Amino acid sequence: MSITGRLLSAALTAGATLAVGYGIKKLSEKLENPMAVPEQEPEREIIGTADAKISLKIGDSSDWSYTMKQKGVVKESENKKESGVHRFDFVPLKDGVTELEFDYKPRSAAAAQQTITYNIEVKNGNIIRCDAAGDLQMLHKQ
């Protein structure tokens, strides 16, 4: 075998050895840390609280009722009617998010005429979000 052949053979052997060594090194790094936890988004700072006092307009023969999707996040602390307004107040129970769907319907009707959906979020024992969507003209502005 010529000197060139021997050099080529040695280079190929060395290259293959280096490639195999690099592959083994990368594989061992993966095996050492198989459950690498991705960095989590930093937790949002809670700046204030939200008001969960809901005031809805009512008529003489119609009334509001509601259903709660995630029970146990908030509870009703007040439910009263006075001078054309139905007032609901909710207090936090545990951290989480719940949806309240308010239906406005005549007392004799089976279906609601209007609907307002509230999303309430509780964090660290405080209501931090209480937002509404739907027939917002029925909200009573105080």
What's the arrangement of secondary structure elements?
Elements: H1 3-32, E1 53-57, E2 62-68, E3 74-82, E4 85-92, E5 96-106, E6 114-123, E7 126-134
Antiparallel strand pairs: 1-4, 2-5, 3-4, 5-6, 6-7
Description:
- There is one protein chain.
- The chain is α+β, with helices and mostly antiparallel strands.
- It is built from one helix and seven strands.
- The strands form two sheets. It has a four-stranded antiparallel β-sheet, with no helix packed on it. It has a three-stranded antiparallel β-sheet with strand order 1-4-3, with no helix packed on it.
- A hairpin with a 7-residue loop joins strand 5 and strand 6 (114-123).
- The mean pLDDT is 82.
The beta-strand count equals: 7
Oligomer: single chain
Helix content: 10-25%
**Major β-sheet annotation:** 4 strands, antiparallel
- Return the structural class: alpha+beta
Discrete helix count: 1
Q: State which percent range the strand residues make up.
A: 35-45%
Strand order of the largest sheet: 2-5-6-7
End-to-end separation in angstroms reads 99 Å
Shape designation: rod-shaped
Regions with little confidence, pLDDT below 50 for 5+ residues: none
- Overall pLDDT score: 82
Rg result: 32 Å
